[in-house]
Specification:
Layout (H helix, E strand, L loop, with lengths): L2 H34 L2 H7 L4 H17 L1 H11 L2 H10 L3 H4 L6 H29 L5 H32 L4 H11 L1 H32 L7 H15 L4 H11 L6 H27 L5 H6 L2 H11 L8 H30 L5 H29 L7 H23 L2
C-alpha cells in the first residue's frame, strides 16, 4: 500500500475511533454525571450523616484517580486494553442499581464502585484513543472526545431533573422520585453497552495493529524526567484549584431558598467545558505543551472570585451571586483544558510501551492534587465563616501553587 493510501486508511480509522469512543463517553457521562447531581440528596433522605457523605464521595474521587496507576500498569503488562475498557464501563450498572436499595451503606458501596470502575477503564481507554487517532492529531482527538464527554455531562443532570419533576407531578415521595431518576439511567446504560461492544468488534484489529506498530518504533525508556516534571506540575495546579464541589457548596449557602439554581451552575461548568475542550485541543496541536500555561494562570480565578465577597477590593464587596457565577465559568474553562490537552500531553511525553502506566501515574498525581485542594481550601472556607479575612490566605495559597506549577511546567519544556 502506498504511503498516501496508508495515511488515508489511518485517518479513516482515527475518525471512526473518535466517533465510537466519543459516543461511549457521552452515554457514560449521561449515566454517572446524571447520578452525581442527585446522589447527595438521596443519601440525605436516607438519613446518612453528612460526615459519611463527604468521606464516601471524597474516597470515591481519590480512588477514581489513584487506582489508575495500578490499572495502567495492568494494561501495559497484559495488553488487555479492550478488556479493561469494557469491564470499567460494564460496572456502570452500579448507577441504575441505586434505585433498588435504601440502605445507605449499600448506596455508598455502589457510589465508590462507580469511581473504581472509572479508574479501571480510563488509562486503557485513553491509550486506545491515543494510538488510533495519531493521524488527525492527538490534541484534536482528545478535545473532540472531551466535547462528547461534556455533552453527556450536560444531558445527564437534565434527564435526572426531568425524571424527578415527572414523579413529583404524580405525587411520589422524595425517595421514590430519586429512585425513578436512577432507574431511568438504565436506558442510556443499555445503549452504552451496544455502542461499546460494536466498537470493540469494529476497532479490535486496527487497535492491535497500532499497538504493535507503535511498540516497535518506540524507545523502551519512555517515562522520562520531563514526564515526571510535567505530572508534578499538574498536581500542583490541581492542588491550588478551588474545585467544583466547594464552588457548589458555597453556592448552596447563597441560594439556600432557591436550590434549583445550584445544579444550573453545575450545567454552566459543563457547558463551558464542552466549548473550551475542542478549542484547547486545536491550540495544543499547533503550539504544544506550552499551551498549558494558560489554564495554570486561569486556575487562580475561581479562588479569587469566591474570596472577593469575603475580603472585598477597596472596601467594595462583590455580589456573592456574581462571584459564584464567575467562579463556575472560570472553573469550566480550566476543566475543559484539563480534561483534553492535559491528557494529550501525556501521550506525547511517553512511549507506547509504558503509556498505560504513564496515564496511571499522571492520574494518581492529578487526583492527589484535588484531594489536597479539597482539604486545604475546604478548611479555609469553613473558618472564613468565623473570620472572613481568612479567605485572603486561600487566594495566596492558590497563587503560590500556580507559580510553582508554572515553574515545573517550564522545567518540563526544557530538553
Amino acid at each position: 500500500m502506498s504511503g498516501q493510501g496508508e495515511y488515508e486508511r489511518q485517518k479513516k480509522i482515527a475518525v471512526t475511533a473518535i466517533m465510537i469512543f466519543g459516543l461511549i463517553s457521552l452515554f457514560g457521562d449521561i449515566i454517572y454525571e446524571g447520578a452525581r447531581s442527585a446522589i447527595s440528596a438521596y443519601l440525605e433522605l436516607l438519613l446518612t450523616p453528612a460526615f459519611i457523605v463527604g468521606l464516601a464521595v471524597g474516597l470515591g474521587e481519590f480512588l477514581g484517580y489513584a487506582l489508575r496507576f495500578l490499572s495502567g500498569y495492568v494494561a501495559d503488562t497484559t495488553r488487555a486494553y479492550w478488556g479493561l475498557t469494557i469491564t470499567g464501563y460494564v460496572l456502570l450498572v452500579s448507577i441504575p442499581l441505586l434505585a433498588f436499595f435504601v440502605d445507605w451503606k449499600i448506596v455508598i458501596f455502589l457510589i465508590v464502585l462507580e469511581r473504581v470502575a472509572k479508574a479501571i477503564r480510563t488509562p486503557a481507554r485513553d491509550t486506545l484513543i491515543s494510538v488510533t487517532t495519531k493521524a488527525i492529531g492527538r490534541g484534536k482527538a482528545f478535545g473532540l472526545h472531551e466535547l462528547m464527554d461534556q455533552i453527556g455531562a450536560t444531558v445527564g443532570p437534565l434527564i435526572v431533573t426531568g425524571a424527578i419533576w415527572y414523579k413529583l407531578q404524580q405525587g411520589a415521595t422524595k425517595i421514590a422520585q430519586l429512585q425513578f431518576a436512577f432507574m431511568i439511567l438504565l436506558i442510556p446504560y443499555l445503549i452504552l453497552l451496544v455502542v461499546l461492544f460494536s466498537g470493540y468488534l469494529r476497532l479490535k484489529l486496527p487497535t492491535q495493529e497500532a499497538l504493535v506498530g507503535a511498540r516497535a518504533s518506540m524507545h523502551p525508556e519512555s517515562l522520562s524526567r520531563r514526564f515526571y516534571l510535567y505530572s508534578f506540575a499538574v498536581m500542583m495546579n490541581t492542588a491550588g484549584l478551588f474545585q467544583v464541589a466547594l464552588i457548589l457548596y458555597r453556592a448552596t449557602e447563597i441560594f439556600i431558598e432557591i436550590l434549583w439554581i445550584v445544579p444550573l451552575l453545575y450545567l454552566l461548568i459543563q457547558g463551558v467545558d464542552a466549548v473550551i475542550a475542542p478549542i484547547a485541543g486545536i491550540a495544543y496541536d499547533k503550539k504544544g505543551i506550552s499551551v498549558l500555561i494558560v489554564p495554570f494562570l486561569l486556575s487562580v480565578f475561581p479562588t479569587i472570585f469566591i474570596a472577593l465577597p469575603f475580603i472585598g477590593i477597596g472596601g467594595m464587596l462583590m455580589s456573592p451571586v456574581i462571584s459564584v457565577v464567575l467562579a463556575s465559568a472560570f472553573y469550566g474553562i480550566v476543566l475543559g483544558m484539563q480534561e483534553s490537552i492535559y491528557r494529550a500531553a501525556v501521550a506525547d511525553l511517553t512511549g507506547i510501551s509504558k503509556r498505560g502506566l504513564g496515564y496511571g501515574i499522571f492520574s494518581t498525581l492529578y487526583g492527589f492534587g484535588f484531594l489536597i485542594s479539597g482539604a486545604v481550601l475546604g478548611y479555609i472556607l469553613d473558618i472564613s465563616k468565623i473570620d472572613p479575612t481568612y479567605m485572603l490566605y486561600a487566594v495566596i495559597y492558590s497563587i503560590v501553587l500556580q507559580i510553582v506549577a508554572i515553574i515545573l511546567l517550564y522545567l518540563s519544556l526544557r530538553k
